[in-house]
Design a protein that fits this description.
Strands 1-9-8-6-7 form a 5-stranded parallel β-sheet. It has a 4-stranded parallel β-sheet with strand order 3-2-4-5, sandwiched between helices. It has a 4-stranded parallel β-sheet with strand order 11-10-12-13, with helices on both faces. It has helices at about 10-20, 40-55, 70-75, 80-90, 100-110, 125-130, 135-140, 155-160, 170-175, 190-200, 220-230, 240-245, 255-265, 280-285, 310-320, 330-345; strands at about 5, 60-65, 75-80, 95-100, 115, 145-150, 165, 185, 205, 235, 250, 270, 290. Helix content is about 40%, strand content about 15%. It folds into 2 domains: about 15-175 and about 305-349, 3-Layer(aba) Sandwich (Rossmann fold); about 215-290, Rossmann fold. It is of the alpha/beta class. Strand 12, helix 14 and strand 13 (about 290) form a beta-alpha-beta unit. It binds 1,3-dihydroxyacetonephosphate (13P) and iron/sulfur cluster (SF4). 1,3-dihydroxyacetonephosphate (13P) binds next to loops. The site of iron/sulfur cluster has 13 residues, from helix 6.
Amino acid sequence: MMILTIISNKCVTTALVCNHPENQTMTRDLDSTGAGSAAFSHEELFGRIRTLKKEMNALVLAHYYTVPEIQQVADIVGDSLALARAAEKNDADVIVFAGVYFMAETAKILNPGKLVLMPDANAGCPLADSCPADRFRIFKEQYPGALVVTYINSTAEIKALSDITCTSSNAEQIIRQIPENQQIIFAPDKNLGGYIAKKLKREMILWQGCCYVHDAFSERYILQACQQHPDAELIAHPECREEVLRHAAFIGSTKALLQHTVSSSAKQFIVATEPGILYEMKKLSPLKTFIPAPKDPENHHSVCTQMKQNTLEKLYQCMLLRKPEILVDEKLRVASLGSIRRMLEMSPA
Ligand code: 13P
Ligand code: SF4
């Protein structure tokens, strides 16, 4: 089995970008939300947010990687697929998305008539930003017959250039439905693409992007952790490197990892994904032990700083001020909707 990877100038740049998220230049408007509510306690903010939810008929969606207090007050906490589905089917007038930009943007693409808010519109995803449309268009042109399957962690421009969107929950399910002889470009995460290609024994052309949070785990320190905790089961997100995945007892999306910790008979887990998920894991299995996978000997957490930009104060302020609002140009929205709709059709709930 051969996994075709493309190494070129743009791929080198991609690797540099994903290794240095702090170097990312966000071009989105940074709103000054968050000021003025820091004096309130969490309890007070919970009460005010709940009141605003009712008054605005708002639905608060939060990813598992956000801070615990955001997860506590959200209506739905989930992985990227569960949140996209929730954004698609709801009766709310307002969607408040505590996650990263591409998630709120996807919600807006699915709901042009609704007000979509983010606590901090500057919370981008470096993986998504590592695949700019101008470079991707040139990359795609090299494979004229290829079908483009793109991870939802991408910009609306990239979705518009794609045939099908996917998440880590349904990537395998979607690739399985594509005829064997069809050439596939998979972008932007090379680790997820490589994992699926290996599992399905299927050649795919991979864009060389990665998530700096998951790509931070290395075999060396993971194996050290396994030796230190011989009774613990290693579980890993497919955005991790192959050198880590090959040692994992279970590989899955954030939600699949969570479900596995509930159903497994193991009592201890080394968790190779963003540690925000530990909040739900401990909540669902209070008697089990969860050890965040080490990034290096000094650092036992590989944290997504962009997800943590969502604070309770900013959540309250964005609802109060009804901004920052997520807007998508109508032509771009229509162009990007097809690949998202295809994903939802190919992986019904
Ligand atoms: P899932 O939500 O599909 O597990 O993906 C993880 C992630 O990195 C989201 O940005
Ligand atoms: Fe992007 Fe990785 Fe953060 Fe997810 S965890 S939002 S892929 S940087």
